[in-house]
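> agent: user asked for a holo structure of the chain below bound to 2-oxoglutaric acid. Plan: (1) validate sequence alphabet, (2) canonicalize SMILES, (3) run complex prediction with ligand conditioning, (4) return tokens. Step 1... ok. Step 2... ok. Step 3 dispatched.
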Amino acid sequence: MPTPSKLNKDPHNHYFDLGAARQVPETHAWEGLHEHPVVDGGVGAGEDAVPVVDMQDPHAAEAVARASEQWGAFLLQGHGVPRELLARVEAGIAGMFALPKTDKMRAARQGGDPYGYGLPHIALYFSKTMWSEGYSLSPTNLRPELRKIWPDAGHDYSQFCGVMEEFHKEMRALADKLMELFLVALGLTGPQIAGVEAEHKLTETMSETIHLNWYVVQMATLPAATRVSTCLTCTLLHACRYPKCPDPKRALGMKAHTDSGFFALLMQSQVPGLHLFRHGPPADRWVEVPAVPGALVVNIGDLFQILTNGRFRSVYHRAVVNRDRERISLAYFLGPAANAKVGPLKEVVGGGRPAYRALTWPEYIIVRKEAFANGGADLEFTKGGTALEMVSINPDDDDGMDDQGDISS
Ligand SMILES: C=C1C[C@]23C[C@@]1(O)CC[C@H]2[C@@]12CCC[C@@](C)(C(=O)O1)[C@H]2[C@@H]3C(=O)O
Ligand SMILES: O=C(O)CCC(=O)C(=O)O
Ligand SMILES: [Fe+2]
């Protein structure tokens, strides 16, 4: 088993065999997971019901504005991506993650690489390890990337690439529509939207990344006859036909974070696990996003909070694991082009003052790294400030007023 110090040096290159685990080792046991209550975010949950936006609704823009200001996230329906396509994507991802570790490791992310199989990027900043596997991909480079896993480019490769390309085409069209809906939700008029697009080419230059998550303990490496074990937590004898996390209460699928880009469209399997953080009153809490068939979850990221001058908020979220059922999610991230400076849009700032200085996505990632190093990864225990706080402009000084960028005031 890797030691925490080894994991810190290069977490992407060391894998603990979750499948063989009979208990959650210290390397994977997180503190403070139960500090805040978890509440249901399903319909009927009153003010904790996760907002739902139907893109076909003529009042969709108002619903987007409300959800983006108050939650930084919403469930999206009426988006036009066929449900059967989502099911094929999920089945394809499940098949890919079910491959032997040796196949997946050929695509392992190296050090600071943006793409590859392994733990997500933020794993670098924590001494504990997440109870999941991930794979970050550029949708415009799918085939060469996936050849690492399937060098013979056989049937499974062609099928997976085919379904992912079909999905990507749909998602890109949806992302463009959603960006326009966000701009309408901000209150921009038709000519203002055309002006923003002409000046900044916001939609046209948006960059995309797909990140696949597998929240699972696979026992497939064990011969079928040995897939019977006694659960160390409940001490019941169970037949492990399905993967099981020995103690989901100590493990964490995805460490709480805000996404850094503009927004993410998240496809999740019919197993809940995504938690959105909400501040009190009445109390700080985690809201569990219900698994709604066919719906996508939209999460606002930090650079969108900057672009909208703080009007639309990025959402702090995490993913938990459960004892019985594997869970798959796919996050499709949209962000600015790597060289575009993002600052508050002048159409949003109006006669006011920009709340943030302009910076590029790579520059923001460097600020976030610094914030994480100072304890700013946790909303609750901020010592040195979150990354967003670090790039905010103090209203009392002139700092950043002339920090104009490609996408800014
Ligand atoms: C485009 C990106 C966003 C992301 C970093 C990345 O370069 C590729 C993976 C993305 C992801 C997925 C899991 C959570 C997250 C915080 C992480 O560690 O890797 C996000 C990153 C992000 O939003 O900053
Ligand atoms: O699995 C989930 O529901 C969340 C995943 C996530 O936050 C991410 O990939 O950025
Ligand atoms: Fe996320």
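> agent: step 4 complete. Summary for user: The chain has one domain: 37-207+231-356. The CA atoms of residues 132 and 215 lie 5 Å apart.
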